[in-house]
């Protein structure tokens, strides 16, 4: 089973993230209210989506966007739908998304390389240089957020921004 997520009004959300400083406080408040309204209607909830993105064994994500003038059985018009599939699925109740520690120190045996601080199976497709220098066992500001313990997958914001940018280009 592949987990699915959807963000309603994705194009609007991208615009907000790129240009929010151009809005008045009143406009920002109105946008935030709309965002919260639409987010409350998305399943799974945002926290569940975060778990899917950061789950250590999840190694593939594919996203697609589609503009809908109307959405049947819902009172929505001019909606940009963004749907992402994560594989293998994660978010297993009672389990942690990853083990904290030194990057690449607990890779499974099929992961023969450490690329950009992530365990990766060698398939000859990419070279480590394609991803920049490997900083293991230390973290860089790019990979370590304040209070983190060495987890280095891209942030949710980075992944969503990439997906939303792709949606705008369609």
Automatic annotation (TrEMBL):
GO cellular component assignments:
extracellular region
Q: Where is the signal peptide?
A: 1-21
Q: Could you name the domain of life of the organism this protein comes from?
A: Eukaryota
Q: Which UniProt keywords apply?
A: Signal
Q: Name the PROSITE patterns for this protein.
A: CRISP_2 (PS01010)
Q: Which InterPro entries match?
A: Allrgn_V5/Tpx1_CS, CAP_dom, CAP_sf
Keyword Protein biosynthesis (UniProt): no
The answer to keyword Signal applying to this record is: yes
Q: Which residues form the SCP domain?
A: 26-94
The protein's name is: Peptidase inhibitor 16
According to its UniProt entry, this protein's organism is: Bagarius yarrelli
Q: What is the lineage of its organism?
A: Eukaryota, Metazoa, Chordata, Craniata, Vertebrata
